[in-house]
Fold this protein.
Amino acid sequence: MSGANMQKIITALERSDGKIVMFADGFVDEVWEIINSRTSLSQFTIYQQMNQFAQRISNSGTGGVGLELVQKRRAFGGFTANIGYAAARLGVDAALVGVYGKEALDPVFEEVGALCRVHSLDDPAVTHVFEFDDGKILMTHMETVLDISWQRIVGTLGMETIVSLLTEADIIGVGYWSLLPAFDEILDGVCANMPADGKTRRFFFDFADFRKKDQASLEHTLEKLRTLNGKFPMTLSVNEHEAATLFAMYNETMDDTGRSVREKTEAVRQQIGLDELVIHTPHYAVAAASGEAPAYALCAFCEKPVRSAGAGDTFNGGYMAASLAGLDLTERLHVANAAVGYFLRNAIFPDQKELARQMNI
């Protein structure tokens, strides 16, 4: 990217005064590596590839498997905290509604609370993340997130606060669909209480793992979004695996790149009936939006990420910040790619200066 184009993007981010409100989850990620073999107290090897670990399980047959873990970090996670904080680091005013601590914020959310306006309903859920070079396994104690409902949000925050948050917001995020049983209920509650002030507010969704619900549930929610899209423009962001499932529903495949995948993404977007469809993969990002030509942007592939849990959320936070800055579709993808590229290599959500350095690679 040329220096002039990069400066234009950074200037737009600096001048942006966009605001978001995010509903409604909260996770503490306990991140582990799995030891393959140990030769001494300080000498050991870890499973670097997911298929190596899978083979270990498969080779055990019907017997037990004893594994040793080493903790990498304890960090905040989830749709609201990850995306909200990633966007806030790039200058977005973010309000978050979820479960971050009952009596006080869990210590892992303190840096989020320092940068975002946090409204907590309960203690967070805990996810055990087993991280590999080529992916991750997430296992979550979901109780507190499963208990989130629109009634509980209203009962804790009060309708006056909710309406105030919605009035300020330019983008409203609701997710993850696959992990939030009350997703449809919360979406209905938000839409029913949207201020009738003529302001256009966009909704942003990351459904997460489609496989956690059946196709009928997915089709039902997509139909709900399609119906609402005429009043509130909708953005759906998916990774390559989710995109493959989505494409298959409309007799398309994700086996092409460049111009072909742009055209397919636009075709699927039109069939879904949403204003905007965004796809992020480890090698490229593509997006289609009403009123804009489909866009495609390569990203610098990271073979050995320092941190992978939260990568997709960082992409989404970057994309959201770029959208609020008024950047075009290609520029939005460049910002999002740079945000996740920096995150993968440094395990840090980038600020504007760090983003600029990554875009200059």
